[in-house]
Amino acid sequence: MSQRSSVMLEPRKQPVQARSAASVDAILEATIQVLLSVGKERLTTTKVASRAGVSVGTLYQYFPNKSALLQGALIRHLDEVTEAIGRVCREQRGKTLKEMAAALINAFLATKMRDAKTSVALYSVSSDVDGVKIAQQMQLHTNKSVAGMLATTSDTLTKDPQLVASMVQSAMAGVSRRLLESPEPEKQLEALRQELIFFVCKYLEACSARVPDSEFVVEPS
Amino acid sequence: MSQRSSVMLEPRKQPVQARSAASVDAILEATIQVLLSVGKERLTTTKVASRAGVSVGTLYQYFPNKSALLQGALIRHLDEVTEAIGRVCREQRGKTLKEMAAALINAFLATKMRDAKTSVALYSVSSDVDGVKIAQQMQLHTNKSVAGMLATTSDTLTKDPQLVASMVQSAMAGVSRRLLESPEPEKQLEALRQELIFFVCKYLEACSARVPDSEFVVEPS
DNA sequence: TCCTAACCTGAGACTTTCTTCATCTAACCA
DNA sequence: TGGTTAGATGAAGAAAGTCTCAGGTTAGGA
Question: Are B216 and A204 in contact (CB under 8 A)?
Fold first, then answer.
C-alpha cells in the first residue's frame, strides 16, 4: 500500500539499522502527537523532532521536507483503514448482502472512531499533502475489496458490483465525515450507524431483487 | 447565512461607497482566480490584490488577514449551495418522496458541478480557515430545509425527518466529494447521479412503508 | 581491537510572506 | 469651493520556520 508518489516525497534514506527504524517510527508518531496537541498551524519540524526525541537533522534524514512528513503520517493512518476494510471483505465472502453491509459498516466506523481525533487532525493536513491523490489510491483499493466481496454473495446481485461498491463507499464516507466533524461524534454514532446499515441494506436489497428501476432514471435539472 | 464567527475574521470596514463594494467583490473573485491558477500554496495576498486591480493595502482594509480572505471566498461559495438546496426544498413541498429525492439530488449535483474546479480548490483551503465550523453551519441549515421538506410529503414518512435528512445529506455529500475528487468528474457524473437517486429512493421508500426494521439493528463489531 | 559506514546533532543562514502605516487621491456635502 | 471622511497606495518592517552542513557518536564486521 505504501505508495511511491511521483513528486519526490519518499524517504531519502531507508533505515538500515534498528535504531534508525525506531527513529522513523518515533517521528511519525510524534507528528500525530504534535498535530493533536498544537494543531496544523503551529506544527513545526523542530517541535516534531523534539517530541520524537531526535534532532531536526535526523528528521530531515528520512523525510525530504515537512510535506513528506505529514504525508507519511497520513498514509500510515489510511493504510489502517484500508487494511481493516480489506479484512472484513475477505471474511464476509459468500455471505448474504445484509451481513456484508452490517459487517462492513461496523468495521469501517469502528476503525474510524477508534482514533477519531487523529482522523480529524489528519483531514486538516490532507490538503497540504496531496491527500486527494492518496485517498484516491485507497479508494480504488477499497473499491476492489468491496466489489469483490459483493460479487461472491449468496444472494443475486443484478448490478455492476463496482458501481454498487462506489455507492456504498460514498455513503459510508459521507456519514463518517459528518460524524467526525460533528461537535460530539459519540452522541450521534449509534443512531447514524444503525440508520446507515438500514440505508445500505435497503439499497442492496433493491439491487438483488429484480425491480423495475427505469422509473428512477430522471433527467438532470 | 453570512455568519459572524467568534474568531475575529469579519471585515474590518463595511463598504460604504459603491467603489469599495466593488473592490471587495473584485478581491473575492480574484481570490478564487488566483487559487485556481497557482494553487493554495502559492497564493499570496499581494497576488490577489494585484489580480483584483487594487493594492495590498486596500485588501487589508476589508479583510483583517489572509485567512479571513480565504474564508470569505469559501463562505460565498457554500452560501450558493445552501441557497440552491433551500430553493428546491421549498419548491418540492408536498410532493412525493421520490420526486423530492430526484429534485434535491439533481439540484445539489448541478450546483456543485457547475463550478467543480472552484469547489475542489476551496476544499483545499477549507482546513486553513475553520472550514469545518462553516460547513457545520451550512449543514444545519440544509438539514432544516431537507427535513422540513420531507415532513410535508404526500407519502407517509415513518421516521424522524431529521435523521432521514442526515442520511440523505451524507450520501449526497459523499458522492459529490467522490465525484469532484475523481480524475474525470464528468465521466462518472451520469452513472453516479442516477444511482444515487435510486439509492436514496429505495431508502425513502423503506422509510415510508411500514417495514419491520428491527432486523437491521445490529450490534457494533 | 580497529575501521568504516550508518547515524545523529543543532546553530543559524536563508527565504518568504504577511501586515502596517504614513501619505496621497477621490467623493460627498454644505 | 473648501472641508471632511472614505478609500487607495506600496515600500519596508518583522516574524517565523525550513532545511543544511560540518562535525561528532555508535554499531558491527574483520
Answer: no
pLDDT tens for A83-110 read 999 999 999 999 999 999 999 999 999 9
Do B199 and A171 make contact, defined as CB atoms within 8 angstroms? yes
Is residue B98 within 8 A of residue B201, CB to CB? The reply is yes
Using a CB-CB cut-off of 8 Å, the residues of chain B touching A214 are none
Of A98, A216, A220, the CB nearest to B110: A220
A47, amino acid identity:
K
- How far apart are alpha carbons B31 and B51 in whole angstroms? 8
Q: Cα separation of A102 and A100, whole Å?
A: 6
Residues in CB range of B127: below 8 A, 6 or more apart:
A40, A123, A124, A125, A126, A127, A128
Interface test with A, best of B167, B172, B200 (most A CBs within 10 A): B167
C-alpha cell at B93: 413541498
Which tens digits make up the pLDDT trace of B111-161?
999 989 999 999 999 999 999 999 999 999 999 999 999 999 999 999 999
The confidence score (pLDDT) of residue A191 equals 97
Out of B132, B163, B198, whose CB is closest to A181? B132
B195 closest CB neighbour out of A102, A109, A167: A167
Residues B152 and B59 reside in one and the same domain: no
Looking at the fold, whether B19 and B86 belong to one and the same domain comes out as: no
Between the CA of A55 and the C1' of D23, what is the distance in angstroms? 15
Interface of B with A in 35-64 (CB under 8 A): 40-41
**CATH value at residue A77:** 1.10.357.10
Of B60, B61, B72, whose CA–CA distance to B28 is shortest?
Answer: B72
Nearest chain B Cα distance for residue A27, angstroms? 23
Q: Torsions phi, psi of B68, nearest 5?
A: -60, -35
Residue A134: domain span: 73-211
